[in-house]
Automatic annotation (TrEMBL):
Residues 110-240 form the N-acetyltransferase domain. It holds the Pfam family Acetyltransf_1. SUPFAM superfamilies: Acyl-CoA N-acyltransferases (Nat) (SSF55729). This is GNAT family N-acetyltransferase.
């Protein structure tokens, strides 16, 4: 259903990993090679299976190395008892194999084009018209790996940007439409255009958003993306 680049990245064990527990709905894997900011991650795919990946120090902190039986509810209780907070899960959306082929056969709409350093002034005007919260949530940047803009009456009204993610053939994207121009399909067309750019460069587009960001979830669906699952990581403020 999903391209192998996506399933391989998320589901194939690392050579440095060690499986602690695995059943039909829950698994725990320890990996000493994890980066500090991803020393604990929790992936729950749409088939209902939750996969925990953690560093040895975190496994020890929550008592997993002692070998006692574990399930997801018990694991989360141990996290809470150990004072290890989570950041808050993101939805993960990708194009399926079928939708990917449809996407590649479409042309870009005329009001959409790549943005470059020469667009610094119009991009600055776009930023001034957006709220700080929207800019922070979308994380669109003019110096990202790829940046596309949608224009209306000569004004930049929607921006999407992306960057290669975690040394994988994935391109993480964000999109932001100025409030007066929402509901007109700009984000949908822009996401599809920048996704074609990524696919042409052998990167699978990745769309992430918080679980309670219903507008962003709707935008992903409108753009033709399919939910792969949810992904959570340890909070940056965690001590363990």
């Amino acid at each position: 259903m999903f391209p192998s680049a996506i399933t391989d990245f998320w589901l194939t064990p690392s050579p440095t990993s060690r499986l602690l527990h695995d059943d039909d709905v829950f698994s725990v894997t320890v990996d000493a090679a994890l980066d500090e900011d991803e020393r604990l991650t929790i992936l729950t795919t749409t088939d209902g299976k939750t996969r925990v990946l953690l560093a040895p120090a975190v496994a020890e902190a929550v008592g997993l190395e002692s070998g006692q039986p574990v399930d997801e509810a018990g694991f989360r209780q141990q996290l809470e008892k150990s004072g290890i907070p989570l950041h808050g899960a993101d939805n993960l959306f990708y194009f399926t194999d079928e939708d990917r082929e449809t996407l590649l056969g479409e042309p870009d709409a005329p009001p959409i084009r790549p943005l470059t350093e020469a667009d610094a002034d119009v991009f600055g005007q776009f930023e001034e018209a957006a709220s700080e919260q929207d800019l922070d949530d979308a994380s669109v940047e003019l110096d990202h790996w790829a940046v596309y803009g949608a224009f209306e009456d000569g004004r930049l009204v929607c921006v999407a940007s992306m960057y290669p993610w975690n040394d994988a053939p994935l391109a993480d994207l964000g999109v932001l439409t100025l409030p007066p121009y929402r509901g007109k399909g700009h984000a949908r067309r822009l996401v599809r255009a920048i996704s074609r750019h990524a696919l042409a460069r052998e990167h699978e587009p990745q769309y992430r958003c918080q679980l309670d960001n219903h507008a962003s979830v709707a935008a992903a669906a409108s753009a033709g993306l399919t939910r792969f699952g949810t992904w959570d990581i340890v909070s940056p403020d965690a001590d363990a």
